[in-house]
C-alpha cells in the first residue's frame, strides 16, 4: 500500500461509543488513521482499497505486563506457588540465559503476540538490547525496561541501575517512536528501599514512568509489613514512586485504603488474571479499582506462568472471574473488558495516540474473521470478541499503518527459524 489507503465494507469496533460496532470505512495515511465512519470518505485522489467484508476491525490489543523471553520456560515449572516457582525453577534457569537466549525467546513471544492480535507489549527483563532488536525488526510497538532485582552487593546494584539507565537513554523513542522506555525495579521484596529510591531518582532525571510488580501474593504483603511496617502500596508511596507516572503489575491483595492511594496518585494497575490464577496468587479487586477510577489494563505476564500470550483469553478471564467472585453479572461487562485490553492499556503505558480507532490515532489495528461458526450469528460483535473469540481468529494485523500479519502469516519475522532456534535455545539451557 502507498501512504494513503482505505478499508471499505468492514465492521469496526468502537467500544464505549453509542454505537459500538458499525459498518463502513477507515482511511489510513502512513502511520495514522485519518478517517473512520459509516459514510464513504471524500478523497481528493483514488487510493488503494482493502475489502473489509467478513472482517471485524478492532484496535490492536495492548499487553501491559510480561517477560517475553520467558517463553523459553513455558511448561518448565507448572503448578507451583510464586516464590517456589521463582526461586527453585525460574531464577536458576534465567541465571544461565545468554543474550541469544533472550533474543530467540523474545522472538518466539513477539511472533505469538502479533499472530494473536497484540500490537503493543510491555517487557521487563535482562539483556534488553536484544529484546529491543526483536521489537525493532518485527514492527510491533513496545514499552521496554531493564527489570532489576537488587538482592546483590552494592557494586552489582549500581551496575544494574546503570544498565537500566543506559538502556532507557538508548531506546526511548527509537524505531520511529515505536519503542519507548520505562524504569523498573522488579518489586518491593527484591529491591531494598534505598535502592528503589535510586530508581525513582533515575525516573525523575530521565522523565520516564516507573513499572514494578506489587502485592501479587498475600505472603508478599505480610512480609512487607514485617520488614518495613507498611503494606506495599504505602511503602512505595513513602519511597516516592508515585511521584512518577506509575504502572504496577498484579496488585492482587489491596485493601480499600490502598485502592484510594492508587486512585489518588493515578497509578495504573496491570491486571494479569491468567498468571494470578495459575500461580494461585488470588484475584485482583478489579471492579473496585475501576469504580475508584484506577486505570486497569491487562497483561499476560511471561509464558512460563500463563502459559500462553493470548490476550483474548485474558479479556475473557477478566470478564468472567470478576462476575464469579462478586456474584454480580454486570461486573466487567464485555465492552469494558475490550476497553481494558485496548484503550486503558494504551493509557497505562502513556501512549496517548494508541488504543482506539479514531482520526489522529496511530494505525495500530487488527482484523478478525467473523464468518466462522463460533462467531455467528452477528448478534453482538463486542460480546463475540470477548466471550467467543481467540487468538486463532486474527486474520490481519497492522502497526503504524504497516501490515505485519497477513492471513495469519507474519511478514516481518522468519517464523520457521524462530521456532527452530527457540527449541534449540531451551535444549541448550538444559545442558548448560
Ligand atoms: C528482573 S527481570 C524480571 C523477573 O521477573 C520474574 N517474574 C516473572 N513473573 C513474575 C511474577 O509473576 N512475579 C514476580 N516476578 C516475576 C522473572 O522470572 C524475572 O526474573
Ligand atoms: Zn511479571
UniProtKB/TrEMBL annotation:
Q: Which SUPFAM superfamilies match?
A: Composite domain of metallo-dependent hydrolases (SSF51338), Metallo-dependent hydrolases (SSF51556)
Q: Which residues bind substrate?
A: 94, 146, 186, 216, 301
Enumerate the GO terms in the molecular function aspect: 5'-methylthioadenosine deaminase activity; metal ion binding; S-adenosylhomocysteine deaminase activity
> Which intervals hold domain Amidohydrolase-related?
58-403
Enzyme group, top EC level?
hydrolase
Reactions catalysed:
S-methyl-5'-thioadenosine + H2O + H(+) = S-methyl-5'-thioinosine + NH4(+); S-adenosyl-L-homocysteine + H2O + H(+) = S-inosyl-L-homocysteine + NH4(+)
KW Acetylation (keyword) present: no
Keyword Zinc appears in the UniProt entry: yes
InterPro entries associated with the record: Amidohydro-rel, Deaminase_MtaD/DadD, Metal-dep_hydrolase_composite, Metal_Hydrolase, MTA/SAH_deaminase
Cofactor binding annotation? Binds 1 zinc ion per subunit.
Record: residues binding Zn(2+)? 65, 67, 213, 301
UniProt keywords, alphabetically: Hydrolase, Metal-binding, Zinc
Enzyme Commission number(s) from the entry = 3.5.4.28, 3.5.4.31
* CDD domains named among the record's database cross-references: ATZ_TRZ_like (cd01298)
Q: Which cofactor does it need?
A: Zn(2+)
What is the similarity comment for this entry?
Answer: Belongs to the metallo-dependent hydrolases superfamily. MTA/SAH deaminase family.
Q: What does this protein do?
A: Catalyzes the deamination of 5-methylthioadenosine and S-adenosyl-L-homocysteine into 5-methylthioinosine and S-inosyl-L-homocysteine, respectively. Is also able to deaminate adenosine.
* The protein, known as: 5-methylthioadenosine/S-adenosylhomocysteine deaminase
What organism does this protein naturally occur in? Paenibacillus durus (Paenibacillus azotofixans)
Task: Recite the lineage of the species.
Answer: Bacteria, Bacillati, Bacillota, Bacilli, Bacillales
